[in-house]
Amino acid sequence: MTIPIPSLAARLRVLLSRETTGGVLVICAAGFGLVLANSPARDGFGHLAGSSLGSLTVDQWAQDGLLALFFLTVGLDLIQEIRVGGLRDPRRAAVPILAACGGVAAPALVYCAVVAPVSGAQFVHGWAIPTATDIAFALTVLVLAGRGLPDGLQRGLRIFLLTLAVVDDLIGILVIAIFYSHAIALPALLAAAACVAVFGWLARRRRMAWWLMVPVAVLAWWFMYRSGVHATIAGVALGLVVPAVRRPDETVSRATRTSQLVQPFSNAVALPVFALFAAGVPVLGTGRSGGSGPFSHPVLWAVVAALVIGKPLGVLAVTAGLKRWSRLELPEGVTIRDLLPVALLCGIGFTVAMLIAGLSFDAQPPDGGDLVDQARIGVLAGSLISALLGGVMLHHDSRRG
User: Fold this and answer.
1) Separation between Cα atoms, residue 349 and residue 380, nearest integer Å
2) 55-180+230-400, what's its fold?
3) Phi/psi of residue 40, each to 5°?
């Protein structure tokens, strides 16, 4: 009996569906954007980002349009974790869930503690920038740097990190929906909700009619954008209404199948294009409007401190408290010491942090663009430091094991 060899297209789809592949592509795109923004090509790059493409600029399409595909995959991951995954049993998922809450509260407090004494309440609005952990980045570092760890420990750390990051994403989504939505247009919001309901109904029919589902999804995104709620929330809502429990006549659930279709495009196009423009910030010379140069603003240092110090501190403090004063348990074979590098990796907050940085300051005159640049430089620096510290500790633990 001959084993069929997967086609090139099938192998490429599998490769692009991997979270580690997405992480590598985003790192490369972010690095390229950073180089372009600090090279002789920076004016052309800035002109491209600000060019109109219909009713939005290219940069806005990357942030509000393409990124909605990433949030669709987040919604699909969430519904699968809630229905059949790690979040299905609250007792098993309680420690990483509560650790995620600590990993949101502590960075926000650290951020405010850095900016408030210097500027009062002027820049406190950016408290949510270090909210979420970037799953693709963090998992890429864990896989690459933790290759030598025992299989059981590596599996336990992966489960803990994935559960925590999924909850982080959920909190980040709620923060965007609640704190960064303006002038809600109720008719458009109701129309978006109706489109999401129709999408969920189509996803539950005997056969999934993609030729109908795609235009309905586009309509849901458009109405959500017009409603004043950030358009990426449409992606999450669409993902959450896809069935995650496999039918008897199906080999995989419809949420899994939808994720398999969307994930390669999200990893190969949506996230890299967003990273290209989001990371394209000037770190040489003065700000974009002639203000002070980089590494001179409290927002930058507040974001770095929140990611590098606040994030692991919140995760470890809550986890240690639960371990000591409750009956909740960590994954089998995992200790508090084992979680230290994972807690550091939680400070990698690229995608959602970059998005919230733009939402926090872009509309604040007179130098909102410079504030966005400062915040995004802080995200880049804090995420890089967290990745290096976590990677070095994982490599050390791998050699020790």
Assistant:
1) 9
2) Na+/H+ antiporter like fold (1.20.1530)
3) -60, -15
